[in-house]
Amino acid sequence: MVPKIVLFAVLASILALSNGQNDSTVSVPPPEPIPHNKTTTEPPTTTSPTTTTPTPTTTSPNKTTTTTTTTTTSTTPSTTVTTPTTLAPNTTHAPNTTFAPTTSPAPPTTAIPPKPTPEKPEVGTWYITNATNNVTCIMAKMAIQFNITYETTKNTTEYGIFNVPKNSTATGVCGNETQILILSWLNDDNKTNSVNFIFVNKKDHFMISNITLIVNQSDSEVFPDIKDKNVTLYYSNKTEFSTPVSKSYVCAKDQKFGLEKNGTNVTVATIDVSEVQLQAFHKEKNEKFGAAENCESSSSPDIVPIAVGCALVGLVAVVLIAYLVGRRRSQARGYLSIVRSDSESDIPLQPVSQWKKCWK
């Protein structure tokens, strides 16, 4: 009885094993995706079928022989052909850029145009005639330019340069001791500017004793961004151009004179005159200048004769001092000298004290 039970158990085990192998399927897990930006399609995996060969069981009445053949499952290995994928090179990103904080744009400002540089002043000619006797008392020919320093609304210092037009209107006064020349012109704002020259007669010489400039500083072309746009007076009380009455003052070079601002006693402006020929207290009824008194010859002294004279005086003094010093030294030594007839050098002799011994 026992052998039968064992036999049935063996048969049941063989059948169970055969059913489990027939139902089993070898599955190959799908390939894992490659973690890249590009997706690569893998070719399908080929799996060979599982073959199970059962062995027939032979049962004998006397002797039971059980032959168990091991089931061989032959599985062809999965062949995965992977197409080589060209990976894009890693891109190195630029570091984060720190942007400057946003600044609100400044309100627009009105730019002040640069001041045009004034041209060289032109030479003008003006005459003042006495209406009573038709005598031309003042004749003037010159080029005039002014340079004024002023303060802007931003508390900075600037300067305004302008010329006196050659066609300025000339008015004046013909007096016996004082004569006046007034030149007037309009600025770009159609406001009047003027300059006054006052001449005086002293010891038969005429000269300018006062120059006064009255300027309207509202001209934005000459005085951009100026703080004080009022009419301002500048003057000079220095004596200039002293010349004999019968002659005319002539000077071609540029000459500058300082002008003080009225009420400040501070020189803040200059007047530049050139190509000058002036004559005041003229007593003829014509417009002809008298003999020229040139500023070069009148203002430059005779330096060469003075220098030569000083050099001669110095040379005489040196020679005199050398003679006196040499004479004193020879007397202090107590020697006498005798000049020989053959014009040879002096022969020193014994001191006078030794001569006295010889005479004794």
Q: Care to give the gist of this entry?
A:
This protein is α+β, with helices and mostly antiparallel strands and 360 residues long. The chain contains four helices and 15 strands. Strands 1, 2, 3, 4, 5, 6, 7, 8, 9, 10, 11, 12 and 13 form a 13-stranded mixed sheet that branches.
Task: Tell me what the structure shows.
- The protein has helices at 2-23, 295-299, 303-333, 352-359; strands at 124-129, 136-151, 157-163, 169-173, 178-186, 192-202, 205-216, 231-236, 240-244, 247-251, 255-261, 267-279, 291-294, 337-338, 347-348.
- It is an alpha+beta fold and 360 residues long.
- The strands form two sheets. Strands 1, 2, 3, 4, 5, 6, 7, 8, 9, 10, 11, 12 and 13 form a 13-stranded mixed β-sheet that branches.
- A hairpin with an 8-residue loop joins strand 14 and strand 15.
- The protein is flat, with a radius of gyration of 64 Å.
- The model is unreliable at 20-29 and 33-89 (pLDDT under 50).
